Amino acid sequence: MPKPEAKFCRNCGTPMQRRVPPLEDRTRAVCPNCGFIDYVNPINVVGTIPVWQGDQVLLCRRAIEPRHGYWTLPAGFLEAGESSSDGAIRETTEEAGAHIDLGALYSVLDVVHVEQVHLFWLATLRDIELDPGVETLECQLFHADGIPWDELAFRTVRTTLEFWVADRAAGIFPLHYGVIDPPPTLPE
Where in the chain is the domain with CATH 3.90.79.10? Predict the structure, then answer.
């Protein structure tokens, strides 16, 4: 579901034209009046893998679409003016009301077909006093062998949790990178 290009220039209101701008290699929406180029770039989704006592992960049941009622890690869109790590902390607070200590960047997943990049950080829960926000029906801690795999909202969450389960068993948590291919039916 690619984002649409601007039909009118954000600077001067002139209808945009599709062409290859100078020094570029692809067609873009360009203003013929002032030269503004509408770059359509990927959106960053940021979140955490909040862990309690080293062996339980916090998941949130979504109260919004897409995938209402399914489980996810606390995550959401990065806002302008914040670092990606600050956004991950904010999303964890907004969705779970969780108090965390942020750890290392853990997974970076390109979701090219929906023009997104998902970044997840390891996090340690300071306590289990949770206060889910309006986008969350409930929060729950799951042991690795109790993760509701068939009820996960997104493949990026599933992939990140698969990394976490394997790394927990190995005792090391390296940075993971991957590309999520277009699904036959499931959203990202």
Answer: 43-179
Q: Which CATH architecture has domain 1-40?
A: Single Sheet (2.20)
Please tell me the distance from the alpha carbon of residue 43 to that of residue 116, in angstroms, as a whole number.
5
- How much is the average pLDDT of 38-46? 94
Count the Cβ atoms, other than its own, within 10 Å of residue 150.
8
Tokens 């180029």 correspond to 37
CATH number 3.40.640.10 given to 43-179: no
Residue 39: is its pLDDT beyond 80?
Answer: yes
User: How many other CB atoms are found less than 10 A from the CB of residue 51?
Assistant: 20
Whether this model's pTM surpasses 0.85: yes
CATH 2.20.70.10 location in the chain: 1-40
Q: Quick one: three-class SS letters along the chain?
A: CCCCCCCECCCCCCECEEECCCCCCCCEEECCCCCCEECCCCEEEEEEEEEECCCEEEEEEECCCCCCCCEECCEEECCCCCCHHHHHHHHHHHHHCCCEEEEEEEEEEEEHHHCEEEEEEEEEECCCCCCCCCCEEEEEEEEHHHCCHHHECCHHHHHHHHHHHHHHHHCCCCCEEEECCCCCCCCC
Q: Residue 94 and residue 122: Cα distance in Å, rounded? A: 17
